[in-house]
């Protein structure tokens, strides 16, 4: 018997009654039967030490077993492939769960949650050391190479070969083949990168304190007349009648967007875009770039870009560069029209870096700002209904709130909900924990999705037979696979409605969520989002296409009176949003080229600073003049976290647009047939099949 606390909100939608709640609900079973934190059975209470100990002991036992294993037949090869994947599962059970717990319990005031946070952080560090030890385990690597080079290896199914090949390549990229002195150098480079990365994380997540902020004095009142009233609290009037501006990022952005005084805008831009924080970030990033290139050189690569992209869908820096420049050329006609309009508003003058936000706003101000009107149609309740409707329309599934056991989410009252992806014929397909609300000092850009358990095959159902098995089975018995669990973080404010942009981010993250929950593979290392980053962003990018299609969004977008979002309001918003689509795409191309080429071996030899390289692309592609400064780096954590792979958003949106057109007929074919084709031929496969073959089912050659 389940005890569920429901709110009184009941909505009638398409003749169906939806009971909706964001209140906490629990199973009536006692905590002694708890399934553990986020479904990890060992984590009843905060027993992280036990979890780490059990997983480490299991890993050590597998290593002894594998290294002593004689390889005589295909069955033995399969056995080793699955044992290696079990090591990966044990590592990820600790590290992925730890990372989600750190995200969720950061700055919690509850003692149990604090303990979870501290123990999760400690566990992450402990298993970092274990991973480092495994990367240096020569006997284990030798057994993998023996497996890979065995005469029967080619008889293994594709996913078995891929799993072994990927593991061998990862070991080689970690320097397993290097002489001891070079391997020690590699370790020092990685330790240096990790240290600088922790410093960078601190810099990225620092807040405006007020004491060290730049100030601009003697600003005439005439330069401030166009500022909305909420900005005036940061303007201190001087005895001479002029003003001193304390340039918090919020205030600086307001001046750059609203002030008609070009001289004041330029002064504010220069003060805030070449400051101490930006200089520290630039210096730290330069150190990381140097260390990464040295690491890549030690491993025999020309530079870090070549090293990093060797495991991606695009394979080489040259392929990425070609894609980006071709996209820029295709976008140029549209972006030039938009630039001409901005130059016209600027009285024929070239556009400075300090001008473009103001000029865009001047053009946008000619159109009605409908953002506030639009947002009232997105309450928390109907947005979650939208996720459920998506699952029903495409897959015949429901995405519904279910109760949790005591302790399954720590002690986060009203903060975390548990959702179930359910099929009327297949049963439970997976669970999703959603951390709803923003918390103080949470890292910026904290909307993310993390796998906790993936849908790989259970050990008792592994097929060790020597019969050939080609391709992915068309029909799977889902009882043979683990039930996936995933954790999402939303970072929402505690108000009744959320903005359309936040809904767009939620649907983007839900694309990752579905990729994890619907994937079923022989190996967890190939499940869900375990593929290359420029491949796994495709499902999330596709979700954004649905959110720009009014017939779909109108199924759940309702105001507090139950009225449907008017199409003309939505169309007006999209029209405003797309006014500078060409320029915005070119700006993303500039950022992608920048992230790619700072890791190019030629960059250190050009005597360019990071700012000068970025300025070069803005000038060459968009024609912007003036110095860019270094503050843009504080808004580009991808340069560290994604390395040279920032392009993946543009690439995968390109693929998603084609899938939206080819499979879903630009929205006219949203059906169970098209949805299940997408599920069976993409989401279910993960990275277990040849990725180019998977894409070719959806992408038409240009």
From TrEMBL:
Residues 256-699 form the Peptidase M3A/M3B catalytic domain. GO terms for molecular function: metal ion binding; metalloendopeptidase activity. Keywords: Hydrolase, Metal-binding, Metalloprotease, Protease, Zinc. Binds 1 zinc ion. The keyword Hydrolase applies. GO terms for biological process: peptide metabolic process; protein processing involved in protein targeting to mitochondrion. One of its GO terms (cellular component) is mitochondrion. Its cofactor is Zn(2+). Pfam families: Peptidase_M3. It comes from the Eukaryota. The keyword DNA-binding does not apply. PANTHER family: MITOCHONDRIAL INTERMEDIATE PEPTIDASE (PTHR11804:SF79), PROTEASE M3 THIMET OLIGOPEPTIDASE-RELATED (PTHR11804). Belongs to the peptidase M3 family. This is Peptidase M3A and M3B domain-containing protein.
């Amino acid at each position: 018997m389940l005890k569920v606390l429901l709110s009184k909100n009941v909505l009638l939608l398409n003749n169906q009654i939806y009971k909706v709640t964001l209140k906490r609900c629990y199973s009536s079973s006692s905590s002694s039967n708890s399934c553990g934190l986020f479904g990890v059975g060992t984590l009843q209470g905060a027993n992280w030490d036990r979890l780490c100990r059990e997983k480490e002991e299991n890993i050590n036992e597998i290593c002894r077993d594998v290294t002593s294993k004689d390889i005589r037949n295909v069955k033995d090869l399969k056995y080793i492939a699955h044992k290696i994947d079990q090591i990966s599962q044990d590592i990820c059970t600790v590290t992925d769960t730890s990372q989600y717990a750190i995200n969720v319990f950061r700055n919690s005031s509850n003692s149990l949650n604090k303990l979870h946070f501290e123990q999760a952080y400690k566990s992450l560090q402990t298993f970092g050391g274990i991973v480092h030890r495994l990367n240096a385990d020569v006997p284990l690597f030798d057994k993998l190479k023996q497996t890979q080079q065995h005469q029967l290896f080619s008889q293994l199914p594709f996913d078995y070969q891929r799993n072994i090949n990927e593991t061998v390549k990862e070991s080689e990229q970690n320097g397993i083949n290097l002489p001891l002195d070079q391997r020690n150098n590699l370790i020092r480079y990685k330790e240096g990168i990790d240290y600088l990365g922790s410093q960078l994380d601190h810099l990225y997540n620092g807040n405006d304190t007020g004491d060290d902020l730049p100030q601009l004095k003697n600003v005439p009142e005439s330069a401030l007349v166009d500022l909305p009233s909420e900005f005036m609290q940061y303007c201190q009037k001087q005895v001479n009648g002029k003003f001193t501006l304390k340039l918090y990022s919020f205030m600086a952005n307001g001046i750059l967007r609203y002030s008609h005084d070009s001289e004041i805008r330029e002064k504010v831009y220069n003060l805030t875009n070449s400051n101490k924080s930006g200089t520290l970030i630039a210096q730290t990033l330069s150190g990381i770039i140097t260390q990464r290139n040295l690491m890549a050189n030690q491993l025999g690569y020309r530079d870090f870009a070549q090293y990093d992209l060797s495991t991606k869908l695009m394979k080489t820096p040259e392929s990425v560069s070609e894609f980006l420049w071709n996209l820029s050329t295709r976008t140029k006609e549209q972006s030039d029209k938009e630039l001409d309009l901005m130059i016209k508003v600027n009285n024929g003058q070239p556009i400075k870096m300090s001008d473009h936000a103001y000029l865009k706003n001047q053009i946008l101000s000619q159109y009605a700002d409908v953002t506030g009107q639009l947002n009232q149609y997105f309450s928390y309740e109907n947005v979650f209904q939208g996720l459920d409707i998506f699952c029903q329309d495409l897959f015949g599934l429901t995405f519904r709130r279910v109760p949790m056991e005591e302790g399954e989410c720590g002690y986060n009252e009203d903060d975390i909900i548990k959702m179930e992806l359910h099929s009327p014929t297949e049963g439970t397909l997976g669970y999703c924990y959603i951390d709803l609300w923003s918390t103080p000092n949470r890292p910026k850009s904290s909307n993310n999705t993390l796998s906790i358990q993936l849908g790989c095959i259970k050990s008792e159902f592994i097929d060790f037979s020597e019969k050939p098995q080609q391709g992915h089975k068309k029909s799977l018995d889902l009882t043979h696979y683990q039930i996936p669990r995933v954790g999402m973080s939303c970072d929402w404010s505690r108000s009744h409605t959320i903005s359309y942009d936040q809904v767009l981010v939620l649907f983007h993250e839900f694309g990752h969520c579905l990729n994890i929950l619907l994937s079923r593979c022989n190996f967890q290392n190939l499940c869900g989002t375990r593929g290359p980053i420029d491949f796994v962003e495709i499902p999330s990018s596709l979700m954004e296409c649905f959110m720009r299609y009014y017939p779909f969004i109108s199924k759940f977008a309702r105001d507090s009176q139950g009225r449907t979002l008017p199409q003309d309001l939505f169309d007006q918003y999209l029209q405003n949003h797309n006014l500078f689509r060409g320029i915005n795409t070119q700006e993303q191309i500039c950022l992608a080229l920048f992230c790619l080429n700072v890791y190019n071996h030629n960059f250190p030899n050009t005597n360019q600073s990071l700012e000068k390289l970025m300025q070069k692309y803005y000038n060459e592609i968009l024609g912007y003049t003036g110095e860019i400064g270094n503050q843009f780096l504080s808004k580009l954590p991808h340069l560290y976290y994604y390395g040279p792979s920032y392009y993946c958003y543009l690439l995968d949106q390109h693929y998603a647009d084609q899938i939206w057109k080819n499979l879903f007929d630009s929205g006219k074919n949203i059906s169970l047939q098209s949805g299940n084709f997408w599920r069976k031929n993409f989401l279910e496969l993960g990275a277990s099949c040849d990725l180019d073959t998977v894409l070719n089912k959806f992408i038409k050659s240009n």
